[in-house]
Amino acid sequence: MPTYKRSNRKRQGGATLIEALVSMLIMSFGMLGLAGMQLSALGFQKSSWSTHRVSEITGDFAERVRANPKAVDSDYQYAATYAVGKAASPTRLGCRTSGTCTTTQIAGDDLADLLTKAQTSLPQGSIQIAGTLANGLVVTTMYLDKDFVDSAGAPQTSTTCSAASTGIDWRNCCPPEASAPAGVRCRRFTIIP
After folding, report:
1. At 178, phi and psi to the nearest 5?
2. Does pLDDT of 172 surpass 80?
3. Which of 96-105, 154-163, 164-173 has the weakest average pLDDT?
4. Percent of residues in the chain assigned helix, strand, coil, to nearest 5
5. What interhelical angle do 17-67 and 103-121 show, nearest 10?
């Protein structure tokens, strides 16, 4: 009959302390990655919220311009700098309630509403409008974005529009006459009446 030797070593029945520590380390790296993704998602959410507000304000204004196209060439122009626009106190005539409005009065109320919405819906918001009935109106909405900073935390400066600006560059550049300071973002849309 064969003889079996018994080993004095006990058979290992669970995870060792080192294995547990390694698994905790791997899990902590995963949790740090998730936290980083959460921060990035919050940044994108803020930017998307601002862009949504700008498009909502501009869309409402576009409907008003299309209802009053005779005033496009003369009365729907607003060429104030960023600082002047954000500090302006627009006054509405409110002539629509009386039913006797001229195209100029309607345009004045529309501009006052647009500027008020930019100022109240966006941080330190302002607008600038230029264009013609034939080529369309370019509405530039400007607002302060505290997250628009470089890697050192200093406010970035938006690019200035030029004749060569097209596509995304054109949509995000600031007109030179706006004199937008560092930290201000510009969003541009064209309205074809």
Report:
1. -75, -25
2. yes
3. 96-105
4. 50, 15, 35
5. 170
- What pLDDT band is residue 15 in, cutting at 50, 70 and 90? low
175 residue type, one letter: P
Name the residue ranges covered by the structural domains of the chain: 48-191
Alpha-carbon span 85 to 130, nearest angstrom: 14
The single residue listed with the structure tokens 């005779």 is: 70
Cα(26)–Cα(46) distance, integer angstroms: 31
Other beta carbons less than 10 A from residue 84's beta carbon: 14
The model's pLDDT over 38-77, given as tens digits with 9 standing for 90+, comes to 877 776 666 677 788 888 999 999 999 998 888 888 889 9
In the chain, beta strands by DSSP E: 126-132, 136-144, 184-191
Cβ neighbour number for residue 183 with a 10 Å cutoff = 19
Give the highest mean pLDDT range of 6-20, 90-104, 142-156.
142-156
What pLDDT, on the 0 to 100 scale, is given for residue 139? 92
SS3 per residue for 20-71: HHHHHHHHHHHHHHHHHHHHHHHHHHHHHHHHHHHHHHHHHHHHHHHHCHHH
Nearest-5° Cα angle at 38, 184 to 167:
40
Rounded Cα–Cα distance for residues 136 and 134 (Å): 6
